Amino acid sequence: MTTDRNREAQASKDIYERVTNQIIAAIEAGAGEYRMPWHHDGSAITTPVNVASRKAYRGVNILSLWAAAHASGYAAGIWGTYRQWHELGAQVRKGERGHLVVFWKISDRNGEAERQDGDADHDAPARRLFARGYTVFNCAQVDGYTPPELPVLPETERIAHAERFCAALGINIRHGDSQPCYIPSKDIVEMPAFASFRDAISYYAVLFHECGHASGAKHRLDRDLTGRFGSAAYAMEECTVELLSAMICADLNLTVQPRPDHAIYIDSWLEVLRSDPRAIFTAASKAQQIADWMHAQQADEVQGAA
Fold first, then answer.
1. Residue 39: pLDDT above 80?
2. Please, which residues bridge with residue 71 across strands?
3. Pairwise CA distance, residues 148 & 144, whole Å
């Protein structure tokens, strides 16, 4: 039993390192243009989806597949294993290299279970998490499959949807400050005037970021928001809400563009990732938790439109 546990632990370590190294490489490759692996064009096929289950990937798998799609120039976020493509009558082309996604073997006092969505709570007590990897291929790597044409809402409708989505969060948002920020002591999100942003989509990407911070208040998700600028805790929180903003923008079909003001964070993100191969898994898991909370606040009308 001990030997099996040791093997599982080593396999998990290898998975953590492989995924983390991929994301570090993607961050380093885009650092000169401030382009991170979670930046995307907001198209209806941005969120990675499994071709067989039709379910969206979650947690770190979203980030990992975004990085893979960006590096390889894939236009669609539709993925499947070799067997899944084969069962659909499609064929992975010879010589194509697959991409790593993660599922979890979770051991606790109630036994063992598996989660295959790439999302697990790394802070949960009384649990042992073992990462397992499997290989998926993008629809651009197969013959015999044509991605479905998805309707594209006009930008005005997508922006109106984003406004309703933010309003449903119940977070106090005030405008007029020169810099966007969340003030924990007052539980207020401060935002510059709408007109000071390049466009409406840029405004909402920043607003989701700040509302992501606000989700950490004790009466919401109760995260530790005491990290000081320059600390690892501060870098992790910033990374978490950046991922959250990208996830929500993808859900609402809004573009996430590079932000030069993030240059001050890039080195700290890389430092945290290099020092702890599990850090990006934790950040992605917390970002997924925030995204789930935000969606849970929505009225039925907004949920149906998402």
1. no
2. none
3. 13
User: By C-alpha distance, which of 83, 89, 93, 88 is closest to 140?
Assistant: 93
Please give the structure tokens belonging to residue 212.
Answer: 């992501």
Q: What gap in Å lies between CA 93 and CA 140, rounded to an integer? A: 10
Q: Tell me how far CA of residue 99 lies from CA of 22, 48, 133, 156, in angstroms.
A: 10, 12, 10, 36
3-class SS at 44?
Answer: coil
Return the pLDDT at 280.
92
Biggest alpha carbon–alpha carbon distance for the chain: 62
- Any residues with CB less than 8 A from the CB of 230 and at least 6 apart, and which? 268
- Encoded tokens for 299: 């009225």
| Mean pLDDT, the chain, integer | 85
Domain residue ranges in the chain: 2-143, 155-305
Region 157-169: mean pLDDT is 94
- What is the per-residue pLDDT for 2? 55
Q: Which residue has the tokens 């990732």?
A: 273
**Please, which pLDDT band fits residue 198 given cuts at 50, 70 and 90?**
confident
**Residues 39, 246: Cα–Cα separation, whole Å:** 7
First CA to last CA across the chain, in angstroms? 46
Q: pTM of the full predicted structure? A: 0.85
Residues in Cβ contact with 279 at an 8 Å cutoff, skipping those fewer than 6 apart = 20, 236, 272, 273
DSSP code at position 248: H
- Which single residue is written with the structure tokens 């993607």? 26
CA 189 to each of CA 21, 166, 182, 226, 248: distance values in angstroms, whole numbers, following the listed order: 34, 12, 4, 16, 17
CB 76 within 8 A of CB 41: no
pLDDT average, residue stretch 143-149:
91
User: What value does the CA radius of gyration of the chain take, rounded to a whole number of Å?
Assistant: 20
